[in-house]
Structures are given as C-alpha cells and as structure tokens.
Amino acid sequence: MTTSTFNIRMDIDLKKEVDEVSKGIGLSSAAAFNVFARQFVAYRGFPFEVKMPSFTEKEFAEEMDSIYLSMKDGNALEHRLIEG
Q1: Sign of CA dihedral 69, 72, 75, 76
Q2: Do 35 and 22 meet the contact criterion of CB atoms below 8 Å apart?
C-alpha cells in the first residue's frame, strides 16, 4: 500500500487530548485519523451526527454559575450514593 502525508492544523490543546485518547485505546493519532477517514468514506460523510449544541458555552457557564450561587446560599440537597 502506498501512503501519503496529510497535514492538518488544530489547537494545541485539542492535539494533546487527541494524542492522549488515542494512546489510551492503543492507537497513534495517525492511526485514529485513518480509522476516521475510512469511516468517513464508508458513510459517504461523517460517521456521526454533526450539529450545533443546544446551548452555547456562555449559556452553560451562566447556568453553572447560577446553580453554584444557589448552593452557596444554602439551597441545596445532599444526596447519598446507594452502593449495590
């Protein structure tokens, strides 16, 4: 099989995460992208749904801040895990 080089640019933090996850499942980043490329071709597009999240990062952060402030004001319930 003849191979070719495929260069892409991505955020350095994202690359670190890709490297870490790939390594965790026993693959190199290049092998992981080869798996993606084969699936992309087989599906004739993305092998998963691609859509905008239902909320923005800012909206999510605001919701988390609101929950935190409510908890800080004493409006929280303690929950215990049931071990089985």
Answers
A1: positive
A2: no
pLDDT in tens, 29-46: 999 999 999 999 999 999
Domain count, the chain: 1
Contacts of 40 (CB under 8 A, 6+ apart): 46, 47
State how far the Cα of 8 lies from the Cα of 63, in Å rounded to an integer.
Answer: 35
Classify residue 55: in a domain, yes or no: yes
Contacts 24+ apart (CB under 8 A), 3-12: 6/33
- pTM for this structure? 0.58
Domain span at 65: 12-72
- Distance between CA atoms of 28 and 5, rounded to whole angstroms? 15
